[in-house]
Amino acid sequence: MASGLRRFVGSLSRRNLSTACANKQLIQQHDGGVGSGKSLNLYSAINQALHIALETDPRAYVFGEDVGFGGVFRCTTGLADRFGKSRVFNTPLCEQGIVGFAIGLAAMGNRAIAEIQFADYIFPAFDQIVNEAAKFRYRSGNQFNCGGLTVRAPYGAVGHGGHYHSQSPEAFFCHVPGLKVVIPRSPRQAKGLLLSCIRDPNPVVFFEPKWLYRLSVEEVPEDDYMLPLSEAEVIREGSDITLVGWGAQLSIMEQACLDAEKEGISCELIDLKTLIPWDKETVEASVRKTGRLLPRSSGYWRFWC
């Protein structure tokens, strides 16, 4: 069985994005818990969440490079027109400054929603996120915090864009106490999880799979709703091996499950959704059942048996 799975994994790693695109509907079948609504793609669901966040909390602000006219991916379209340039505004091209300003804004009791235009450029702000935002509460003995901070960033490859617009840097932040790291796989998740992140009393880094901005479409409730953080979801039950992933990679992983099923291998597939603090209870329960674990990292597969 192990050799069969390695063969499937090897073949999938060589498939291009067009193959995964053909199976995009797979990631849209497993996200219950809220009612039906309007059909939206992922970037529109993000936009809707930001509208709700600004409308329901006068302390909320959205800012970043080019967000005033909608951003390069159009996620902030219409926000400045509706809420004004004092609450939705462009910043200089300085990621360290964006996050540093966001930390100060959040420390004053506001909801700071900072956009990094591409996740590849989050590294200049790494010190601010890791050494300031994550440690703010602890270093003050819980007298102060910047829990109203959410850093949004589109991540991952789209089949073009080169090395400065294709990276998946989430692993760097998953070793930092004091941060939460969240990645949605679908429009319904994107809206509910983003609203939870914005309202969470801890700083959050929210990575958005830009490959799915327009590709992933599903029914999204138009009302205000939140999905719980740190709660993984078993999106496919199985008995032979557990697969764990997040974000855009779930569509490819589910195709691997379907291919393995043809060989008589039953795969259980789990979407972490929150990478830190992660839902170890759900993963452990699955591995106790299957006895095997195949986690999907950002850039490669690793196999434990």
From TrEMBL:
It is an enzyme of class 1 (oxidoreductase). Keywords: Oxidoreductase. InterPro entries: THDP-binding (IPR029061), Transketo_C/PFOR_II (IPR009014), Transketolase-like_Pyr-bd (IPR005475), Transketolase_C (IPR033248). Its cofactor is thiamine diphosphate. SUPFAM superfamilies: Thiamin diphosphate-binding fold (THDP-binding), TK C-terminal domain-like. Its EC number is 1.2.4.4. It catalyses: N(6)-[(R)-lipoyl]-L-lysyl-[protein] + 3-methyl-2-oxobutanoate + H(+) = N(6)-[(R)-S(8)-2-methylpropanoyldihydrolipoyl]-L-lysyl-[protein] + CO2. GO terms for molecular function: branched-chain 2-oxo acid dehydrogenase activity. Residues 40-215 form the Transketolase-like pyrimidine-binding domain. This is 3-methyl-2-oxobutanoate dehydrogenase (2-methylpropanoyl-transferring).
